[in-house]
Amino acid sequence: MFSKPTARVLAILDLFMSHPSKAYGLTELTRILGLNKATCHAILSTMARYGFLAQDSRSKAYRLGPSIAAAGMSAFAQFPVLEVARPRLEALSKELQLGCGLMGRSGDQLVLLTNYGIPERLEFPFHQGLRLPNAAPLGAAFIAWSSPNKLQQWLDSAQAHLPEWDENLDKRLRISVIGIRARGFEVTLISEAEAALERELAKPKENWSLEEVAEHVQHYRESLCRSHYHLDRIEEGRQYQVANIAVPIFASGEEPELVISAGSIRRPVSAQDILAIADRLKLAAKEISEAATATLSYPQPDQDPPTA
Asked: Regarding the domain delimited by 76-296, which CATH topology (the fold level of the hierarchy) does it fall under?
């Protein structure tokens, strides 16, 4: 079931969330959102009245309002680990001189909850709040510690867009998941699929459409299925074009609560560097889990992620 009026409001929120420090005038918003002026003005006025947007008295431009901040604080109840993770994530980003982020799961989506240390952060296309399909090969750092049934569903999702079963793809994904669980972290490689998504999301858009963004990320996922996406074997002496290194964070259950990652790696990295970054991410994940246990009264997790 789809509600077009609701989608309009969500598109406005999504635009502002993607550019949280930017203010937009009515004319610019009507152009970007593809709405007529009267409809757009009515939505913006209502959102401003209830504090979800704030309007500058001089320029008349709109930006995110205080009610969004309150909503964000309420959302922390769904991911209380974020509260203890934030200062450690900021420190880790400065230490590694890399972009560091937290990814969560919500139904059939992966959501970039927060990121730090990304150059020109507001223009970086993989923005805070970006949603990706919770389907193979994405989300492997979550699924590697999931039940056999969930693992099979994830593996099957990689085949959904294909006309017939791809045995090689299935085998490749199984090998990747086994490796991720055995060593405790995921490594993904830069590919043309990521570059294409980055170009699409960075393009100036005449219309800001949630459906268009969803279409781009779905094409991205499908392209990754054809790419050498996961680094399954880290060989000493080799250099790699790494996109992301990710480590699970465990809190109250046997499956990861969140995934902490380091990315924005714009240079080739050695096997030794990959292992060093992964070890630092593991330590941060352990610290976050222990802090969450002490602060939020979670049951004490295992000292290390469970292995196969």
From this structure: Beta-Lactamase (3.30.450)
